[in-house]
Amino acid sequence: MKKLLLVCFMTLFGIGHSFAQDYERGIFNHLGANFSVGTEGIGIGIAAPCTEYLEFGLGINFFPGIKIKDDVTIDVAGLPIDNKVNIKGSMSRTMLDFKANVYPFGNRSSFFVAAGFSFGGKKIFDLNGHNNDVAGLTPEERSLIAADLADYRLEFDSNGDINGDVRVKSFRPYLGLGFGRLVPKKRVGFRFELGCQFMGKMKVYQNDKELDPDAPVKGKDDLSKWLDKLKVYPVLKFTLTGRIF
User: Fold this and answer.
1) Measured on CA atoms in the order 36, 41, 43, 48, is the torsion positive or negative?
2) Which stretches of the chain are DSSP H helices?
3) Backbone Cα Rg of the chain
4) Is the Cβ–Cβ distance between 119 and 95 less than 8 Å?
5) Three-state DSSP state, 4
6) Which of 232, 235, 234 is nearest to 192 (CA)?
7) 43-74: per-residue pLDDT in tens?
8) pTM over 0.90
9) Residues whose CB falls within 8 Å of the CB of residue 18, separated by 6 or more in sequence, listed in order
């Protein structure tokens, strides 16, 4: 029995050693699968090399819902109501991505520069808030007030609620760099990536209608700053890679 196990072990070792010796990155002659975690969420994907200098990857990322909330100032127009409303933002999205990874040093290094794009739904953020004082106003009085979020004036409905969403481009170019290959020479490998996804200016919608940026006073709360500044989404990703064949 021991001899049989030894023979099996030596056979497997020999096969693995042969794979390592004969491994060559050609044009789509290998296939890899990967699992990643990072600022884009949780991702899975497949990849293939195209010579030692180029690699293509296709993946999908699932971003779990996170919530951000802050007190936003209300332009009360002289009415005797609370001038703050707590607005909650919830973010969740699913994105497809395609990337080409260039390895300028070929097989001598796993350093790469990446370019590609992500594609997903335009709506990335839901906005919800409520103010009890506004619920008791007449329609004429409600038309005079609004919550100043970044450059936008969010309107209240008859229940004193604010409902809206934030949208960006569905097609988002990507640039990045890192170390590691999606199709490793060994069966399992690791990869680190740092980059940025160009989302464009965030736009606020209510009742499926884009709002004009016409707030008389620019919102100073953290949620307003987030909407105003985050045109480029930072990407930090750690990936477990594997070679199928």
Assistant:
1) negative
2) 2-22, 132-135, 139-142, 222-229
3) 26
4) yes
5) helix
6) 235
7) 999 999 999 999 999 999 998 877 888 888 88
8) no
9) none
